[in-house]
Amino acid sequence: MVTELNIDADLRLGGFSLELSARLHIEGVLGVLGGNGAGKTSLLRLLAGLERPHQGCIEFGGSCWLDTSRGIAVPTHERRIGMVFQDARLFPHLSVAGNLDFAGRRAKGQAPPRDEILQTLGLEPLLERRPAALSGGERQRVALARALMSAPRLLLLDEPLSAADMGYRGELLAYLRDVIDSFRIPTVYVAHTLDEMTRLARHLMVLRNGGCVALGPVSEVLARLDLPEVSRRDESGSIVEATVVAHDPAYQLTHLSFGGQSMSMTGLIGMPGDRVSVRIFATDVAIALQKPEGISIRNVLPATITAIRVDNNLPHADILLESGGHAIRARLTRASLDDLGLAESQRVFALLKAASLVSD
User: Are 272 and 246 spatial neighbours (Cβ–Cβ below 8 Å)?
Assistant: First the structure.
């Protein structure tokens, strides 16, 4: 389901200003990325009605939530928004069941089936506990369940994984994906890491100094070499949409195809004919001028260099390759760039280890 969110607003908070004008088509999850002070949380608070802009209007799903020119400002509780913050903000005096019951009563019979929410988030064993007896990740699962119990039209998630222990974040991310797939509620998701965005979001908005500097499908935004919010990260890379061709159970490999190219990755992923998203980290891509032979790397892809970005203050250079109609980022040392004499429009080979590819 695609839901339209139109926002044209000027929010001023002390010396900070968030100025946005965008027509957003939210299908699944819209990710919002940016550095500290970019305006991510301010955007969520604006959508929730917790901040009133100096001027502007907000429309969601055909409903007008705000229009300062007409004096319209729908209060937060009437917008039917579910919010999950960095800290769970559960009622400490209520059990897990009590927190969910409170949200359910406010939904006035419109909440999704409680049993489905409990099962999806694995909360049945925790119902009698109070928040103080829960781990950070468990509190976030309860906060997400409470948001769902409020029968929201829109979910706003403000870095929901930040309170979880590092070892638990992967598990909590899996729960989030189950919620998104099961309940299909349009979601605006704020995070610092590209890992969360690539595994959850369909579209990505990049904020900087209170303004939008990029907006589009995740794969397209990741291919922007001019965005430091994307480029200056260890996890920068690319997403390739591929089709499962076959499995090799003996070697535990999955063979894929995309744009006439063939590629293999470790693990038995999907079923033949399935579409899968494959994440390729820029630091795992090597470049050769000639097709190499007698090497262990299984994926050798003909490619063309479409862009090169060099910052002399950094040891590396970012390179954008086109292969099979997909953009693939590579990160090399500047020394390697110069040694190979790489230039835009040059035909090369991209080398990808099968073991380094990740299926989202």
Answer: yes
